[in-house]
Structure formats: C-alpha cells, structure tokens
C-alpha cells in the first residue's frame, strides 16, 4: 500500500483529497500547508508519494520540489496546479516531478496517476 503526503495551502482541498485517496485504499500520513510542515513530518513519517501544489502564498512549489528530490530522491512527486502552462510542466519535469495534475482534476485522473507510480 502506497503512503502519501498532501501539500497544499488549502485545508479543504487536502481533506477532500485525503477522503478520495483513503477510500481507494491509500494511506495519507502527512497533510501539510507549507514546506516546513512537510519536511518536519517527513523525518518521522517517510512516504512513497507527495502531491505538491505549485503555488503557495509565500513560497514556490517548484523550489519545494527541488529540495524534496534533493533530500528524498526516491520519493515520487505529483505536482498540482491550476495554471496550464508548458513552462510549469517543463520545469516540474526538470526538477524531478513524476507528473502534473491540472485543477480541477477528476478523481479518476488522480488515482490513475498514482497507480502509474507503483
């Protein structure tokens, strides 16, 4: 069973994603609203997959991605964004993301993207 971390500044989105993922048999071990929460929790609860938003009020998700891959190179990362820009996709891939999901996304798309990471 894959374990996950959800990193988004929206608590409502994190809760909705957690419900969908746990209903499909995944374990959400971390819910974080910023990078400091993520990294402090990852030390205690390593995960297989991180769902990471691109835009935060005070930091850039692409920078978080780079640091995440530096510290935890084996973790899979799916970026989540509402902006459908090729530059975001290309930069996310350069920094090690396994994929990008565009908001609003269908829950089937989310589950399919995660299943591909196994």
Question: What report would you give on this structure?
Answer:
The protein has 118 residues and is α/β, with parallel strands linked by helices. It is built from 5 helices and 5 strands; from the N terminus they run βαβαβαβαβα. The protein has a 5-stranded parallel sheet, sandwiched between helices. It starts with a strand and ends with a helix. The mean pLDDT is 94.
Which keywords apply here?
alpha/beta, five-stranded parallel β-sheet, 5 helices
The main sheet orders its strands as 2-1-3-4-5
Q: Could you say which overall geometry the principal axes of the C-alpha atoms support? A: globular
- Which stretches are low in confidence, meaning pLDDT under 50 for 5 or more residues running? none
Q: State the share of residues found in helices, binned by percent.
A: 40-55%
Let me know the average pLDDT.
Answer: 94
What structural class results from the helix and strand content?
A: alpha/beta
- Main β-sheet: number of strands, strand sense, barrel status? 5 strands, parallel
Give the distance, in angstroms, between the N- and C-terminal Cα atoms. Answer: 9 Å
- The DSSP helix count reads 5
What is Rg?
Answer: 13 Å
Strand fraction: 15-25%
Count the E strands. Answer: 5
Order of helices and strands: EHEHEHEHEH
How are the elements arranged and paired?
Elements: E1 3-7, H1 11-23, E2 27-32, H2 35-42, E3 49-53, H3 61-71, E4 76-81, H4 86-94, E5 99-102, H5 107-115
């Amino acid at each position: 069973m894959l374990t996950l971390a959800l990193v988004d500044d929206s608590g409502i989105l994190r809760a909705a994603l957690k419900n969908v993922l746990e209903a499909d048999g995944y374990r959400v071990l971390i819910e974080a609203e910023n990078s400091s929460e993520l990294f402090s929790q990852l030390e205690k609860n390593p995960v297989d997959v991180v769902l990471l938003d691109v835009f935060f009020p005070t930091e850039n998700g692409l920078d978080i991605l780079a640091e995440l891959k530096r510290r935890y190179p084996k973790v899979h990362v799916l970026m989540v964004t509402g902006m459908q820009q090729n530059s975001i996709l290309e930069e996310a891939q350069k920094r090690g993301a396994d994929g990008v999901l565009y908001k609003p996304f269908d829950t089937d798309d989310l589950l399919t993207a995660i299943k591909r990471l196994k």
